[in-house]
Amino acid sequence: MVRLYLATSNVGKVKEISELLAAFDVSVLPRSSTLEAPVETGETLIENAILKANYDFALIEGSAVLADDSGLFVDVLDGAPGVYSSSFGGVEGDDSRNRSALIERLKQARVDSSRARFRCVMALKGISGQISTYEGVVEGTVYPFERGLHGFGYDSMFIPDEGDGRTFGEMERYEKSNISHRSRALAKLVEAITRDPSILL
Ligand code: ITT
Q: DSSP for 29-67?
């Protein structure tokens, strides 16, 4: 079975990706907590996803790697936090600060809500070093409040158009995964592997 290392330190992503690939003939392995994370210098999701895949691939040697770069793009904030979603509150990876910063910015903009979308780019680097990328999007509305304790990041502030009015934070993981940006990117990846399994090699 092909080993596929996840090039992410985000526990929320690991849970979602592992679950979505469970039925598939790959052994999904989390990133070692002893590995340092790369500095994300890219200006787009695709640049950062490729950067993360390349970085971990060089450290791991001999295994396929899957990286995820994602973010929330809010219309009334001209697309912020976007590529900078994980450090919007000033501390990298601090979800609670990030949400507070977003609530603050929405209040400053004097809006009750804004159109927004989560985007995700997955970069797969096969054992031989070839890279392919896959993108997924989910449209919805972001609010300056938090509802629900599930998920991670901005889930509790985002109501997807295709749901029943609950935030992602109020949904079970499988419900979010039915429509999420991440599952959509992964569905494209799975389709590509099914068509041509050699992209893993
Ligand atoms: P890695 O780089 O280690 O993968 P990260 O959290 O830094 O972890 P990103 O740079 O891709 O990852 O930033 C993604 C941020 O976007 C994440 O920290 C959340 O704030 C937000 N985000 C992405 N997907 C999300 C989701 O499904 N639900 C809620 N927030 C999400």
A: EPPPTTSPPPP---SSHHHHHHHHHHHHHHHH-SSEEEE
